[in-house]
Amino acid sequence: MNLETALLLALVGAICGADSFAEQFQIYRPVVVGFLVGLVLGDVKTGLIVGGMFELVFLGQTAAFGGAQPPNMVIGTLMGVTFAIVSKLPPQTAIAVGVPFAVLMQAIMTTFCTLLAWLMHRNDKHIEEGNYKGIEINQYMGLALCAVLYFIVSFIPVYFGADKAAQAIKLLPEWIIHGLGVAGGILPAVGFAMLLKMMFRTEYVVFLILGFFAAAYLNLPVLALAIFAFCFVIYDYYLQKSLSKDTTPAETDGI
Fold first, then answer.
1. Whether 83 contacts 94, CB under 8 Å
2. Among 159, 111, 114, which residue's Cα sits nearest to residue 13?
3. pLDDT tens digit string along 27-83?
4. Alpha carbon of 82 to those of 151, 161, 181, 183: distances in Å?
5. 155: closest CA among 255, 17, 50?
6. Cα–Cα distance, 73 to 76 (Å, whole number)
7. DSSP string of the chain?
8. How far is CA 146 from CA 10, 24, 30, 33, 217, in A?
9. Sign of dihedral through CA atoms 181, 98, 111, 25?
C-alpha cells in the first residue's frame, strides 16, 4: 500500500480513536469507521457492508468503564475493512480477520490507560491549587496522546502488512477461508446476545418474536423491519406520554 493511503487510513484511525476516548461525536462506531475507510480506499459499498457487520459484532458494547477495556471496535473495524477491500475478502471472513486486531488493541489500550494515570495525579495537584486551566490542558494532552497511539497502531499494519497479507491470504486453502467466514458469521449473533442480555425486558418479548417471524417467514428486508420498529417506538412514546398525562393528579387550589 502506498504511503499516502496508509497515512490517510492512520488519520481516520486517529480521529475515530480519539473520539472513542472522548465519547463526543460517535464517529468511532464501526459503521462510520467502515464508511471512512471505504471512502479512502475507493470502495464505500464494501466499507459500509463490513462496517455494518462489525456494528452487529460490537452492538452490545458502548464504552469502557474504569480500567476495563473492551475489544477495540475502531482498530478491529479499520483492519477488517482494509483487508476486505485490499484482499477482496467476503464480509464474514473480514470480521474474523479484524477481531484479533480488536483484541490486540484492547491490551494496548489497557496498558496506555495505566500509563496515563500520571495525568490524574497532575490533575489532583491542579485541583488543590485551583488551577483549572492546567486541568483543561491535561485533558487535551491525554486526548492528543490517544490520537497519536491510534495513528501509530493503524499505520504500521496497514502500510507494512496489508499487501503482504493479501498475498498470503491467496495462498490459504479454501477450507481455511470458509472456516474464517463461518466464525465471522457467528460473531454478529454474539453481539445481539450481549445487547439482549443488557436490555431484555419481558414486556418487549412480543416485538422480538414478531421481528424474527417477519424476517424468517415473510422474508422482509432489514430496512423494512427497521421502519416497522421505528413506527412501534413512536407509537409507544406517544402512548406512554398520553398515559402519564392521564395519571397525573389534578392540581388543587391551596387552602
1. yes
2. 159
3. 999 999 999 999 999 999 999 999 988 888 887 665 555 556 778 889 989 999 998
4. 15, 11, 16, 19
5. 17
6. 5
7. --HHHHHHHHHHHHHHHHHHHHTSS-TTSHHHHHHHHHHHHT-HHHHHHHHHHHHHHTTT----BTTBPPP-HHHHHHHHHHHHHHHT--HHHHHHHHHHHHHHHHHHHHHHHHHTHHHHHHHHHHHHHT-HHHHHHHHHHHHHHHHHHHHHHHHHHHHHHHHHHHHHHHHS-HHHHHHHHHHHHHHHHHHHHHHHHHH--GGGHHHHHHHHHHHHHS---HHHHHHHHHHHHHHHHHHHHHHHHHHSPPP----
8. 13, 14, 18, 17, 47
9. negative
Q: Based on the number of CB atoms within 10 Å of its own CB, is 29 exposed (0-12), middle (13-18) or buried (19 or more)?
A: buried
C-alpha cell at 125: 495537584
- Closest listed residue to residue 78, CA positions, set 20, 23, 31: 31
Integer angstrom CA distances of residue 39 from 9, 56, 92, 157, 160: 10, 21, 20, 19, 21
Q: What is the pTM of this model?
A: 0.69
- Euclidean distance between CA atoms 155 and 6, whole angstroms: 6
Grid cell, residue 202, equals: 419481558
What percent of the chain is predicted at pLDDT more than 90?
21
How far apart CA 88 and CA 1 sit, in angstroms, is 14
Q: Cα–Cα distance between 127 and 237 in angstroms, integer? A: 43
pLDDT band at 170 (very low <50, low <70, confident <90, very high): low
Q: Residues 24-40: pLDDT tens digits?
A: 888 999 999 999 999 99
